[in-house]
Amino acid sequence: MSFPLLTATAALPAIGAVATAAVPAARRTAAKWLALAFSLGTLVLAGIALARFEPGGSRYQLTESHAWIKDFGVRYELGVDGIGLALMALTALLIPFVILAGWHDADPLETNSSRWRPTQGFFALILMVEAMVVLSFVATDVFLFYILFEAMLIPMYFLIGGFGDRAHSGSDENAAAQRSYAAVKFLLYNLVGGLIMLAAVIGLYVVAGTFSLSEIAAARADGSLTMATSTERWLFLGFFFAFAVKAPLWPLHTWLPNAMGEATTPVAVLITAVVDKVGTFAMLRFCLQLFPEASKWATPVVLVLALISIIYGALLAVGQRDIKRLIAYASISHFGFIILGIFAMTSQGQSGATLYMVNHGISTAALMLVAGFLITRRGSRLIADYGGVQKVAPVLAGTFLIGGLATLSLPGLAPFVSEFLVLVGAFAAYPAVGIIATTGIVLAAIYVLVLYQRTMTGPVKAEVQGMADLKVRELVVVVPLIALLIFLGVYPKPLTEIVNPAVQHTMSDVQKKDPQPEVEAAK
Amino acid sequence: MENLIALLVAAPLLGAVVLLCGGRRLDRVGHWLGTALAGASFVVAVVLFTDMLGRSADDRALHQKLFSWIPVEGFQADVAFQLDQLSMTFVLLITSVGTLIHIYSIGYMEHDERRRRFFGYLNLFVAAMLILVIADNYLLLYVGWEGVGLASYLLIGFWQHKPSAATAAKKAFLVNRVGDMGLSIAIMLMFTTFGTFAFGPVLEATGETSEGKLTAIGLMLLLAACGKSAQVPLQSWLGDAMEGPTPVSALIHAATMVTAGVYLIVRSGAIFNGAPDAQLVVVVVGAVTLLFGAIVGCAKDDIKKALAGSTMSQIGYMILAAGLGPIGYVFAIMHLVTHGFFKAGLFLGAGSVMHGMNDEVDMRRYGGLRKYMPVTFVTFGLGYLAIIGFPGLSGFFSKDKIIEAAFAKGGTEGWILGAVTLLGAAITAFYMTRVMLMTFFGEKRWQPDAEGHDPHPHESPKSMTIPMIVLAFGSVFAGGFFSIGDRFLHWLEPVTGHSHGDAPVSATTVTAATMVVLVIGVAVAWVMYGRKAVPAVAPRGSLLTRAARRDLLQDDFNHVVLVRGGEHLTRSLVYVDHSLVDGVVNGTAASMGGLSGRLRKLQNGYARTYAVSMFGGTAVLIAATLLMRAV
């Protein structure tokens, strides 16, 4: 038996979490380094998985399969296709930066408290989330995926509720109340989604008699498993609802701005760049693959909701006064693009959507983490409290601008590639949808440039005077992310190479062919 | 030889990276490095040009494919270049004027502590602009297209501490983004129609699709061109863009970037040739902008804004010519090149005047400067003569050709367009004479600046005057050089095609008419600003004058409709999201799951208890599943 690489990639951060939590209270710094080391180790394993993956090979690779709950046919079954692999790599890539960016965010306020170990807990929880997210990207058993999908809420809840952003307006008590409201809202929304999904998971088992993705897909393909139209639609809706909450799709999005606003910045990045991707990933993997007919049936409604998300999210971002909430609404707009690309059901749309998940992860991380550095310096999240930062901290302002330009999908940076693919893919199938979505590029420019203008330009505000520029630790966080944004913008081929074959599989699952161009078709 | 093409872009791009990431230690040499790399690009351009001249007219295009950019099923985008005569013309213009303006900036920005960064941005601009004109497909062109937009944004807002500069930069980017939407949609249409967006295959296959498709693509390309080239209705950003340092106005907002729209339309000639309706819209946009810009130019007292109005108007001429189809393509580009020389020269002259006048821009506070700045006066004066179309100078040849082509459109349209271009020529003569008289002639109307320093006008340093002299040469001789033996026509014709059209009047008649309107324009200006003393405070003026001072109310319109409307929309949406969407979703969940009581508890401070109990549930679920395995 070969080395269980995927299990190892998920297990390493889990072990890291336990080890970090066990570090004695006084050795806070050691706990941080330990967590960082484990996250880097995970990155190495993910890199090995990338290297071992053969783009032209079978659909799921590096597979592992063990019996788990025999009575219900639940198996511990893992495997990656290009899409899961790309997202696993993204997760493994971002966590070290999240840890490094949050280096001081969980330092105890009273240094002499010996029993309470917030720092250890903070980093252990982050690693725990990583373990669960990685495993959910490689799980090919529906029940196993469901367990992880739900279980990751627990560490996330504590990360949001237990470690608030220290930059807040109003009293500490008020902030604590808002924080726990945000955490509970996050939990409730996702639990309700999860419960409905649980019903659908059980329903699927009743119909299919197995939880194995590959077995169900094979049975559907050779006709030995047929579903009544209404059954398939109900099951689809059960899955889709849970994923739409997590993604999040309008109108189920309202938990995200609260959660991202109240959480510490690295946790906000964890939510939007990593955890939420499980939602859109699962739409591609489970909704389209298990319920192709129902997916096509639901397409018109999903596309409209995605369009609303794109425009509504962007307009709300324009109207925000709080930097972090602004980025949260921008993310809602971007998730609209991802879902649009998935349900356009064209090769360009789905490749674009997958690239979008990766690129959005990197660009939001860059923008949000720099925003976090800014907020920590001034102690306020309100845009109006800033002005003229570029004069005193030009490097901070410059990196913030690049993060912003990536967010507005400037050509040359990675998000442009994915956004254009999504747009062209949507346009090819539904021209009107593509054109409406294109207005998103103007709105994105508004919220990014208004944010930059109000915070970074103009006369230097008194409170901003003397603000320090980025420190070495912060540069180590930001510079690689920016380099990656540029690299994947200029040369996305390494990514498209692994993603394309997976997308072709999904396209044949839903039995869709790309619309042919008019002139070639005429020939 | 084709391997050299990438070098054109690589040199300035390297400069941008080094200068922007290099840090303070490069402060002392940054401007030299930036200038040298822009110059290197010019040298490569000259080598490629010489090589191109050595080959026959049909065999001049060079191709270089660097790598496959976005390989996705059914979608092929390459990073690949194409250098033909049209691209070569732009490359020479961009690198030559670009290098001159780098040199000029060494002196102009001498006292700015962020000069290194300025040169980094300038290099970035040159690289992006070159990508724009040598890309071999529309998607890579898009990269250059937004790249120059970014450079323009950074340079307009270079003095970011001034809120007006930051606002102007943002405005330019946003208005351009509306145009970029057009380019995006055009590329998508090409993809669904032709299955590709590379120049070669698309432009060869235009005959195989419907006129409707071509019209749609053409109109979307025009929208893009309107944004970048400041044509009505997306013109409002150009005047504000004058907040940028003057060399930027000269290079980006006069000579090169703003003419990208003309390039786009001429490059896409095959599409427009098959879409007469789209061409008609192009012509109308050009004609309207030509007059719009000219009228605005008449009313401005700010020397740079008067020149900006003029730029809009002159690009209107080019767009109009491009909309005429094969009759006008060559002349659109010829005017673009000569305009590049004389307008860049005029802006550098304006910068030189400002340099000597404590950065004063109000022409009502100039006067009599010809004695104090002789070189500036002479070079600016030659640019002035060129732009109004004084016989023998560059503008005379290129503008005259456009007016002829407008008449040659034929029919009623031809007469209308011919009349508009003639009227434009008269107004051009008027406003440029006004600028000339108010700045260099008449009495001194100088006033001390905000800190009470009296201006001591003086000639600018050599690094500034030499580029002005070189550009003045171009302003004088380029048009004649291009026209002898129809050189420029023969050079570009293999790419753009050419037809003579159907002229109702002879070329001599057109030239004579042009001379008449020229004299009228100059004479009226002389009566108003030469014979009488210029008042130091602007008179109230007629309704039209007042409207023209406010850019014909474009911003008032935008403010009321777009800005106010947008603010109301976003504000009400924020309210809706908070109270309605959130409320309805929570409410639905509550009514379905009996959660309302729990939500109330949550607000009463039982949140933690509640959450912990939820976890309990989940934990039990997980424990149960694990146990089942054990059993």
From TrEMBL, chain A:
InterPro entries: NADH_Q_OxRdtase_chainM/4, NADH_UbQ_OxRdtase, ND/Mrp_TM. Residues 139-443 form the NADH:quinone oxidoreductase/Mrp antiporter transmembrane domain. It is a multi-pass membrane protein. It is found in: Endomembrane system; Membrane. The chain crosses the membrane at residues 31-51, 83-103, 123-149, 187-214, 234-255, 267-291, 297-319, 326-345, 357-375, 395-414, 420-452, 472-491. Its EC number is 1.6.5.9. It holds the Pfam family Proton_antipo_M. It is an enzyme of class 1 (oxidoreductase). GO terms for molecular function: NADH dehydrogenase (quinone) (non-electrogenic) activity. This is NADH-quinone oxidoreductase subunit M. It comes from Streptomyces poriferorum.
